[in-house]
Amino acid sequence: MPELFDPITLRGVTFKNRVIVSPMCQYQAGPDGRVNDWHIVHYGSLALGGAGLMFVEATAVESRGRISERDLGLWSDEQVEGIARVVNFAHRWGTKIGVQLGHAGRKADVSEPIVAPSAIPFSEHYQKPVVLDEENLDAIERAFAAAAKRAVQAGFDVIEIHGAHGYLLHQFLSPLSNQRTDAYGGSPENRVRFPLRVVRAVREAVPDDMPVFIRVSGSEYSPDGYTMDDMILYCRAFLEAGVDVIDVSSGGNVPVAPKSYAGYQVPFADAIKRATGAVVASVGMLDDPLLADAVVQEGRADMVAVARGFLRDKHWAHTAARRLNKPVSVPQPYQRAY
Fold this sequence. Notes:
Blueprint (H helix, E strand, L loop, with lengths): L7 E3 L2 E3 L3 E3 L15 H11 L5 E8 L19 H13 L3 E7 L12 E2 L13 E2 L2 H21 L3 E6 L4 H6 L14 H4 L1 H13 L6 E6 L10 H13 L4 E5 L16 H11 L2 E5 L5 H9 L5 E4 L1 H5 L3 H8 L15
Parallel strand pairs: 3-4, 3-12, 4-5, 5-8, 6-7, 8-9, 9-10, 10-11, 11-12
Antiparallel strand pairs: 1-2
Helix pairs in contact: 1-2, 2-3, 3-6, 7-8
Pfam family, one: Oxidored_FMN
InterPro entries: Aldolase_TIM, OxRdtase_FMN_N, YqjM-like
Protein name: NADPH2 dehydrogenase
């Protein structure tokens, strides 16, 4: 079996190892959704840390789809130049970089009216969303495709579609938030219909040699949510539509946090991988290098995404390589430390 620091090739991109810097919202942008000095320094630091792939935070495809009014966006051509600076710096030091494109739906915390599959607020602290009609569904599909094209223009190596954590595409997948009676609600086959439109639109908008990931929530932690059988159906459909990696997280569609512990989401990734044969990434408190390596060596996931570990140690991948007795390659100014 491969190990954590073995390379992996997806379509036309080879990653030097299987460590991913997970997308992490920073909430540091201005209302224009553009990159500023915080992002340059933060992502520049992460780009030097040795990961095979680093993701920029959830980046909104529409202004009304921001998680907060301080999110990054790619809904406008004016936002490309700033984010391209981040990409160019990462590439200068040999780091592959991706962007997570998303729409918050009913979890958008913005002053604009928000939208969702059904008029069900996420909690009492959120607006009641407007039900999406066909015209607005078309607009959001186009927004994802347009944002994907801007991401290509900015030079990203990978695009990840955010279909987890209770945001818009997850909302369509879940009976908790999707109570539609039209072609987009009811059965699992109908609930996946709009997310599939988005996946196909993104796949068509990017080059054939560019990998497309999708992040999903493997469990909703609710007896009334979708089942693992439903999720496997969804993932098979995403793979058929051109997704290359299923990035497996969990939760987010109910306002209750699950009990978390090291590796608590790995069983969801493992189940999806075994059922579909997909390339999967696992995430969630996997910042112990021995655990992360074991997840890959045991075939439970093909890649491991680390979030808080990289916040504590921007060079987590170098630290992990030393712990696992693997070669460490760092930029010349840092070599004296190793």
